[in-house]
Structures are given as C-alpha cells and as structure tokens.
Amino acid sequence: MPNPLFSTYSQGENRVTASILAVFERISFAIVEQILQSLLQEPETSLLTFRNQPSGPSSTPDARIRASFSYWIETKRIPNSVRAKQLKAHLKALDDEPPIDTQRLLVLTPDSHIPGAVVNTLDDRVAWASFEDLVTAINEAIEIDEEWLASERNLPTERERELLRELVRFLISEGLVGKAIDEVLVVAARRALSDYLKYGAYICQPNRSFRPCSHMAFYANGRIHKQIPKIMGKIEQIMMTREAAEGFSGDNEHRERLLFLFDELEKSADSRIGELAKVLFLSTPDDDMTIVLPNDIENDLISESGRTIAFTQGQRYVPLERLKKAPSTTSELLRA
Prior knowledge:
This protein is an alpha+beta fold.
C-alpha cells in the first residue's frame, strides 16, 4: 500500500522525505528515473533496462528485464548541516549491501552551493542536489513543449503532473525553495534568444513555473549567450491579441511593452498571435542593467559514453556571481 501522500511525521526531515517518496510511489517509474537522472546529473544511467535476445554464457533467452541499483537519500532541512561522519556511515552501509551495479547516496539540502562535507567525501557514489534542483527536475519532467516531441522523454499523465505540482507546492510551504533571487534562470533558447534580441521579452506557455530569479540567460547552439538581461516583470497569462494588450489593466510600463510586443509579432505574422502565453519582460540588449560577458560560455559537458549533454533541456539555475566570473565553458561555470 502506498504511503500517505503528505506525511504527518512531526520531525521535519522525515516529513519531507516521506512526502517525496509518497509522490514517487504514485507516478510511473520512467518519470521517477528522469527526475533522479537530472538530480544526479547522470542522463545516461538507466535504472531499468529492457533487452531483446540478450546473449548469455550458455543460452540466449527471448528477452531480459533487468534492474540492479540502490539509491539512498539523506535529507536536510537546515543549510550547512551535512556532516561527514553521517555520510561515511551511510557509505559503510552501502559497502555492506550485496553486490549491485549502481549505488548512489543522494544528499538533498536547501543549500545554494554543494556542502563541504559532500565534496570532502571523495566518493563517486555521493551526489548532492538542492531542493531548488528538485523543483527544476520536476518542472522539466512535467513540461510539454516542442523539444519534447523530438525527444525520448516520457509524457506524464495529467494525474502525475498534478501530483508533482502538489509536491512543489509542499516544498514551497515548507520553506525549502524560493528564497534565493540572486540567481540566473538559464532557458533552452532555440527560439527564445531571437525573441529576446527582437522584443526584449521571453514568451512561453502560460503559468509556467520558475524560481524567483534576478536575471535570465539563453542556452542555444551549444552555448550560453553572453548577454544576461535583468528580469523586469512578468505576466503569468495573457491572450496574445491587440485587444488583450490594449485592455491590460496592470502596470503602465508593462502595458506599453505588451503593445510593442504585439505590434512586432503582428508584423511578422507570428504563429503565437491569438494564443495564451506567459511573458517575462527583460532589460534590452543595450540597457545598462543587462550584464554582457566578454564571451559566450561553450557547453563542454560530456557523458560517460562520450556524448554531449545539453546544459539544459528546459530550464536550469546558476548563481549570478558564477556567471559574472565569465567562465569560458559550462564545466568551469559549474565548478566556479
């Protein structure tokens, strides 16, 4: 029987961990695997494999379904509370398990940077992710966009999407996400970069969930573009029509920018006219509030199989201070 959806444990860490597991129990294994791959930054690691006619030492069966992994999770609700002694005890317990292909100890905390105790373990089985990273992985798992149609990502059901949204709301209510604003929202930008350069705006599906951030960056053509605009405001949902722009009753500056945006979309007969959308208003490329790095940041992330890993397939977050150091590659950015 599945665990209660949102745990009634009185101890905070147990309540958070049990609630995460309760949601994972109720959604497909493929979606859980995708979220874990994102948190562990191991997109090539398949936890469950299906193979036709695998060759064995003395026989070839018609098919094989195989899983051999053990993922342990250590949760902390307080920043800077990870202790090396506890991690070593968990690793010792993993050593005592029966032989298994993949072992991981995922340390899940609200820290904005990897805790020193995790770095100092010097054990490849230990991985760290923040609750903000978990929210990002969930958003990417439930997002349906043009890139999903051309990818191998699994499509969650509406029930699964709602359960995951509820988990995000729970994490927010627990005070584990949404605090840091000196971060940069990095979006996959095959089309968005062109939009920004022409309109000074970012357009996406209505009510798309983002963490509070101060700036936005665009990942396109294997690099993060060097212009980092400031996020000036947003409209969660609006119909992309002149009537809606003219009738907008919010901030006057937002109304003027909406009218400009619609005029430009109309000139190019943009296919998004008449659709619902979310709009983020950004500082323009020549605005003093836009940070301009001396160079684009090349993506050099490579999987164990030698394939290039996209820096983001939907959205990702990095500290603003790291981008200001103007690293030349994404691996340098993550290490900064």
